[in-house]
Amino acid sequence: MTSSRSESAGVVGAHAKSDDPLAWAGDAGAAAVQFFLTDPQAWKAPPVRDDADALRATSVAVYVHAPYRINVATTNNRIRVPSRKLLMQHAQGAAELGARGIVVHGGHLAEGDDPSIGVENWRKTFAYAANDGGYPLPVLIENTAGGTNAVARRFDRLARLWDAVGDLGAGFCLDTCHAFAGGEDLSGIVERVLSITGRIDLVHANDSRDAFDSGADRHANLGAGTIDAATIADVCRAAGCDVVVETPGGPDAQRADIDLLRASM
Predict the structure, then answer these.
(1) Which residues partner with 244 through β-bridges?
(2) Whole-structure pTM over 0.85, yes or no?
């Protein structure tokens, strides 16, 4: 497969509160911004935003994170079917803001479910979207930290997923905390991902509060957790794409993380 990496490094930004992401980006010194369009735990379509024109016009790279509720892999029809609808609604809302992509977690199945069902449900998700004209912007599937029957925690599962959706327009978001806590060594991880997906569209550069293979999704500021900050910077540099820190402490703390990455990239 060929890589989607550019010859030059991407921009570095931050995950922001959704009420005024551009002001947050300014305070954090961020050249990219990611945010939710609704409460991430809600089953709600995104509303019209007062700052839509500003977001479309900004030079800041805009990314949207889909609600956590979305799980298109599950065998539970009462979750899977509305998840497909919600993902399309938020993809359309993100496209209307000029976003470069929408990030969505790979999802999981119940204990004992056949993993191939989750893969097939992801394939059907893209197929159903194609019947309605397709997603209006790249859907960036993100690796996850926990779950013994997750679709995109372990990279052997990710490979099975990509065999099904890689040719259907799926993009990939690599989260360093999720990979580390999920049991994937960060050394050489970019090359391993590219051998599977052929692309990395976005990196979530996060330290982890917890140990390797803990399965815990708890982010820390760079250098304040259990991952060597230089290793995270190495991943960002090797990926050569846009980077977003999803670290705690507000814009001031994120500015320090962004400055660290920029100095290393």
Answers:
(1) 13, 204
(2) yes
